[in-house]
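quick one
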Amino acid sequence: MNRLQGKVALITGAGGGQGAAEAYLFAKEGAKVALTDIQFENVQAVADKINAEFPEQALALKHDVSSEEDWIKVIQAVVSKFGPITVLVNNAGILATKSYKETNIDYWRKGLDINAWSQFVGIKSVVPIMEQAGGGSIVNIGSLASIMNAGGFNAYTASKGAVEAMTRSAAAEFGPSKIRVNSVHPGAIATKMLTDTITTDEGMKAVEAGIPLRRVGEPEDVAKLVLFLASDDSTYITGVEHIIDGGMWFV
Ligand SMILES: NC(=O)c1ccc[n+]([C@@H]2O[C@H](COP(=O)([O-])OP(=O)(O)OC[C@H]3O[C@@H](n4cnc5c(N)ncnc54)[C@H](O)[C@@H]3O)[C@@H](O)[C@H]2O)c1
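structure w/ nicotinamide-adenine-dinucleotide:
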């Protein structure tokens, strides 16, 4: 308990899935949490649920992570409600399932804008606040798709590869300011993103058969790792890709 006491966290894409699980766990561990999402009704519902259990700890905001204007407004709102942001979880993302031949330039740019450019703007915007606060932790959500062979997910793998590389360069640049930057690379996690893609029981069984732990991950599995990276339990860890996939990558 209270592993995030005194921290102010901003989690993007927290209207469902992994972001919602992270927001709940963060509040439970004492953080003030700003939850943002392009789907405002969803993120408001998650924040209401958190506030019912942990009063005054959650704030819901509408946020398109591919808009710099939205980032500026969101950050101002969070700082004025809760004070300086000391944890950023760049979680919002979309799956882009087209192959090289099917991918046109607009489709590729959209994948990169939402999954990678957004994280660059988020990092750039919160770093001055974290520097003034004396440090912070940034967790960028990537994917196993940038680490293992993922044919047919062209723009997605490119965007998640950018997340991995940006994480290392940011960790090197901001380490002297006591700002840690890590990436998390989930395998198959039971959220809308996965169930929209794997739509049959047979398909899901085939996915599970390829995972040594023989199950897909739950959003809470990832939330526990993100909590560790956000907390002071990981004060000497930065610039690292953390795979969480039930062993999927090595088989
Ligand atoms: N589920 C998986 O199997 C899996 C695997 C590897 C990586 N990931 C990554 O995990 C992260 C979380 O995904 P999830 O599994 O919870 O899926 P999800 O679809 O449940 O959640 C994604 C959230 O991002 C929000 N979002 C989408 N576009 C946005 C935008 N432009 N601005 C703000 N919010 C936006 C959605 O509204 C949604 O609430 C993503 O970055 C995803 O790429 C997921």
